[in-house]
Specification:
The complex is a heterodimer of chains A (about 425) and B (about 190). Chain A has about 425 residues and is of the alpha+beta class. In chain A, strands 2, 3, 4, 5, 6 and 7 form a 6-stranded antiparallel sheet that branches. In chain A, strand 2 and strand 3 form a beta hairpin. The radius of gyration of chain A is 38 Å and the shape is extended. The C terminus of chain A is likely disordered. Chain B has about 190 residues and is mainly α. Chain B has 2 domains: about 90 residues, Rna Polymerase Sigma Factor, Chain: A; about 70 residues, Winged helix-like DNA-binding domain superfamily/Winged helix DNA-binding domain (Arc Repressor Mutant, subunit A). Chain B is about 70% helix and about 0% strand. Chain B is globular, with a radius of gyration of 20 Å. Chain B starts with a helix and ends with a strand. About 5% of the residues of chain B have low confidence. Classes of the chains: A alpha+beta (about 425), B mainly alpha (about 190). At the A-B interface, strand 1, helix 1 and helix 2 of A face helix 2, helix 3, helix 5, helix 6 and helix 8 of B.
């Protein structure tokens, strides 16, 4: 008989190489192509290729910057109180002839709207109810203090210092009683609207917060993040069917402007999280009994095999072997993949004379441990594992001994 | 697998999409060529770096490649670059003294006849691995040709790592049985 070694695969000739590459190709992911394409563009002097989502990134930067500016401006205006008010018109006044100031009383606002109507009919009227909130927020005793202490007048009384203001001082003493009823809606911060008013040609500084018109992760657009999205993304990553630009944006879950396996992993986690909740709440007792029928669940949530009176499921593996040959064990693991299982290895001498001390001595002497996938969680011959961590490779070389696995499944342990 | 003409027309319509299709189609081939060359001295990261360089060169030279010769061109570039990569990764060799007996090492280790035998046995081995079906065949090739880590194998075949280990063990046993039925014995590969 001729000998064949797996080492034949370590240095293959061209014909075999072609065959291996054709039959077992390594999968390329998106990021690798992007890297190569970027390198090509840079070397060929075409500059950098636009990354997917780069446009959106800039929009986000601009909108954030605009929001920051607005917040700073609003904070300045809001804290103006006594002295800085004269500077207010400089901020709010437009350089053009449509120079009306929005922070006025109701009466002055009327004149403003007239001015605005006469100069630029297309301009939106000043929202009057928003303006007097500064004086509205003042306590009712404010007019008295204004009269006696000029230095501490309300912001509105400071307005006449600037000649271009249309806010007359006498009117400012009256506004409190003539204020519009409080039933009218008022924005919490009127100064936010003030700066945008005198610049009708500029884009409004207040932009709506950047909201995504889509649900991240909802790749197929059915307004639901589900297993179908996982399949769609998987097909894309394996080049079965590629996503379009919009789908790519939806699939970029970690927002690194690159759709790759990381996004797939996150998507899987998301979907699993959504379906995990109802699965735990499901009456697993009935489910297991329907699917298996051979198991019993005690009140403390421990799953036992019905066949065994000692409450454990003994799987005898003569002369070593794989316990995954047990259909029962496989069914149990599949039926409750989230179960926490206690697994114990027992070793019986051939004469079936079992004793704990003899077993421990034998295990230590032979150096037997269960080679489970999860390193570190098991002690000698004993493990508490999740279903997906259970994997037994018992040594073959212990002929003459029977080995047993005692397995109990503990359910719903966090 | 797209024919070359289709790739070319795709590239003429949209360069990026076309190159992406070309990349996806030939990545496995290029990677296999590179890995076969540098596996003894390099890592998968080295291989990916080399594959990256190869595709950059292919993209750059694409207009110069004669129609019908794309596959051969890519293969040639891949082998050449892989050899360069191997040399780069290999420690600088010591000067060889002609008078020393170590000169014998310069001679080819295997004769042509042995090479032929190896190639024949390799084809038998590949045939039997193929007969195992999926995903066992892929798991074995990922393990023994690509020397891939368990997590990578698991990701490729869409299974969990413990399941991959189990399947690998069972697949190796089946492979051993298959080879024995055909009159071969298998050495090693117990992993």
């Amino acid at each position: 008989m001729q000998e064949i070694s797996m080492d034949l695969l370590t240095d293959v000739d061209d014909a075999a190489l072609e065959r291996i590459a054709r039959e077992y190709p390594m999968q390329a992911d998106e990021a690798l192509f992007e890297r190569a394409y970027q390198g090509y563009l840079e070397e060929s002097g075409c500059g950098k290729a636009p990354k997917p989502g780069a446009k959106r990134h800039w929009i986000q930067v601009i909108s954030v910057a605009a929001c920051c500016l607005l917040i700073v401006g609003a904070a300045c205006l809001w804290r103006i109180p006594p002295h800085p008010l004269p500077t207010l018109p400089e901020i709010t006044e437009p350089p053009s002839e449509t120079g009306t100031v929005s922070i006025t009383t109701e009466a002055s606002a009327e004149t403003e709207t007239h001015d605005a109507a006469s100069t630029s009919p297309t301009e939106q009227p000043t929202p009057d109810p928003t303006e007097p909130t500064i004086s509205q927020t003042e306590p009712p005793t404010q007019p008295d203090t204004q009269a006696t202490v000029p230095a501490e007048t309300s912001p509105v009384t400071q307005a006449p210092v600037v000649p271009t203001e249309t806010v007359p001082a006498p009117k400012s003493t009256e506004p409190v009683p003539t204020e519009p009823p409080p039933t009218e809606p008022e924005p919490s911060n009127p100064s936010l609207i003030v700066p945008s008013e005198p610049h009708p040609t500029e884009p409004p500084l207040i932009e709506p917060p950047p909201t995504k018109p889509y649900l991240t992760g909802d790749i197929n657009g059915d307004r639901e993040i589900s297993i179908r999205d996982i399949v769609t993304l998987h097909d894309h990553l394996t080049s079965v069917s590629l996503l379009d630009d919009e789908q790519l944006q939806r699939a970029d879950i970690n927002e690194d402007h690159c759709v790759d396996a990381n996004d797939l992993a996150l998507l899987k986690q998301t979907v699993l999280r959504t379906i995990e909740e109802p699965r735990i709440e499901k009456p697993y007792r009935e489910v297991l009994q329907q699917t298996l029928g051979k198991w019993d669940i005690t009140d403390d949530g421990i799953l036992y095999a019905k066949e065994d009176c000692d409450g454990v499921f003994d799987l005898t593996i003569p002369n070593g072997g794989f316990c995954d040959r047990s259909e029962l064990l496989q069914a149990m693991l599949q039926a409750y993949p989230d179960g926490i299982f206690a697994v114990e290895l027992k070793v019986y001498p051939a004469d079936d004379s079992y004793s704990y001390e003899a077993e421990q001595a034998y295990l230590q002497e032979q150096g037997i441990t269960m080679q489970v996938a999860y390193q570190g969680a098991y002690e000698l011959g004993y493990a508490i594992l999740r279903a997906d961590q259970i994997e037994f490779f018992l040594p073959y070389q212990h002929a003459g001994y029977n080995m047993s696995l005692a397995i109990g499944a503990y359910l719903n342990i966090p | 697998m797209r024919p070359e003409s289709e790739l070319r027309s795709l590239i003429s319509r949209s360069q990026k999409d076309g190159f992406q299709a070309l990349f996806q189609q030939y990545y496995g081939y290029v990677y296999a060529v590179v890995w076969n060359c540098i596996r003894s001295v390099g890592s998968h990261e080295d291989a990916e770096e080399c594959v990256n360089d190869i595709f950059i060169e292919v993209f750059r030279q694409f207009d110069e490649i004669e129609p019908g010769k794309l596959h051969g061109y890519i293969g040639t570039v891949a082998k050449r670059r892989a050899i360069n990569c191997f040399h780069r990764l290999t420690v600088k060799p010591q000067p060889i003294s002609i008078e020393e007996q170590s000169l014998q090492t310069l001679a080819a280790k295997d004769s042509v006849e042995q090479d032929y035998d190896k190639a024949a046995l390799r084809q038998v081995l590949l045939d039997q691995i193929r007969m195992l079906g999926e995903p066992d065949a892929t798991i074995i090739m990922m393990k023994y040709f690509y020397d891939a880590a368990p997590d990578r194998i698991a990701k490729t075949v869409g299974m969990k790592q413990p399941a991959v280990r189990k399947r690998l063990s069972r697949a190796m046993k089946r492979l051993r049985d298959l080879l024995e039925k055909n009159g071969y014995t298998m050495n090693g590969g117990d992993g």
